[in-house]
Design a protein that fits this description.
The protein has helices spanning about 10-15, 35-40, 95-100, 150-160, 165-180, 180-185, and strands at about 45-50, 55-60, 65-70, 80-85, 85-90, 110, 120-125, 140-145, 195-200, 210, 220-225, 230-235, 255-260. The termini are far apart. The mean pLDDT is about 95. The protein has 6 helices and 13 strands. The protein is α+β, with helices and mostly antiparallel strands and about 280 residues long. The chain is globular and about 75 Å long. The protein is about 15% helix and about 30% strand. It has one domain (about 50-270). A hairpin with a 7-residue loop joins β6 and β7.
């Protein structure tokens, strides 16, 4: 008996059904572009965190401040984790961010937090790479589709330990910040925003691919912190992700994270987003 599956007679008709965007996003909380632009006019640099090549570092952003992730020496991508500084169980939700916006994010998009809070953590207020758009391969910049390179997948595919994968980098950085064992805190490491990374899906096999990032020294992506944030950023061992991944052969460069404060009077009308209003009863009275 053959296991071959035969297409039904109406296969073409089924394939031709018009796609629908899953979420009607017009009712999302408004992105007040005028407010963010006004706030950007009075920014003062508070601090700079250096993220060494093939390593990670943490940084804290008070609510109402901005932070910029900057390319400073060479083409380099970074893996970003964000948490509510006061509750690490509320963290960046890459899947929901992807569903509400797109596979790749830029100015005007927001990074959303995990259920049950499900609210804006940060708003992208400037992006020097927004010109890139989507290229002929279907690739874009700043993806929220990849996970993060990790030592478990690396071991599964190569049979060897490699400790500078982004998952390990982020785990070490968070362990240092919290002063806790790395095996304990790695459970807080989550799917990332791949800052500056240029990725897509192949048109024939629909596999996730990467290509050399268009980022150059001086480029940056800027965010407004909608709550008190703890961030961790890894300077990926893939460098610009144009050749290899998870090794020490690829040229890698540092990244900088600048924390910037706007004038106090600009924030007088700003309010932090409340946690999601769903009752959490899940139909059980």
């Amino acid at each position: 008996m053959s296991d071959r599956v035969i297409a039904p007679a109406d296969a073409d008709e089924r394939r031709a059904i018009k796609p629908l965007v899953c979420y009607e996003v017009d009712s999302l909380p408004n992105v007040d572009s005028a407010f963010y632009e006004q706030a950007r006019e009075s920014l003062t640099l508070v601090s700079t965190t250096v993220v060494a090549p093939r390593d990670a570092n943490t940084f804290v952003v008070p609510e109402g401040h901005f932070f910029r992730i900057k390319s400073v020496e060479g083409s380099q991508v970074g893996d970003l984790n964000l948490w509510n500084q006061h509750d690490l169980s509320e963290r960046f939700f890459s899947g929901k961010t992807r569903q509400l916006h797109a596979t790749h994010v830029t100015r005007g998009d927001r990074l959303w937090s995990s259920i049950p809070s499900l609210r804006a953590m940060a708003t992208i207020t400037h992006d020097t790479l927004e010109w890139y758009g989507y290229d002929q391969h279907g690739a874009g910049v700043h993806d929220v589709i990849g996970t993060r390179c990790d030592p478990y997948t690396n071991y599964m595919l190569k049979g060897e330990d490699y400790h500078h994968c982004c998952h390990s980098n982020l785990s070490r950085a968070l362990a240092t910040y919290l002063n806790k064992p790395v095996q304990e805190v790695e459970l807080h490491i989550h799917d990332v925003m791949n800052v500056f990374m240029c990725t897509g899906f192949t048109l024939d096999t629909h596999q996730y691919f990467m290509k050399a990032s268009p980022v150059r020294p001086g480029d940056y992506i800027e965010f407004f912190a909608e709550m008190d944030l703890l961030g961790a950023l890894s300077a990926c061992p893939g460098g610009n992700c144009g050749s290899s991944h998870s090794d020490d052969a690829t040229p890698c460069y540092p990244l900088h994270v600048d924390i910037l404060k706007p004038a106090d009077e600009v924030l007088s009308s700003w309010k932090k987003a409340p946690a999601n209003g769903y009752s959490r009863t899940h139909g059980i009275s």
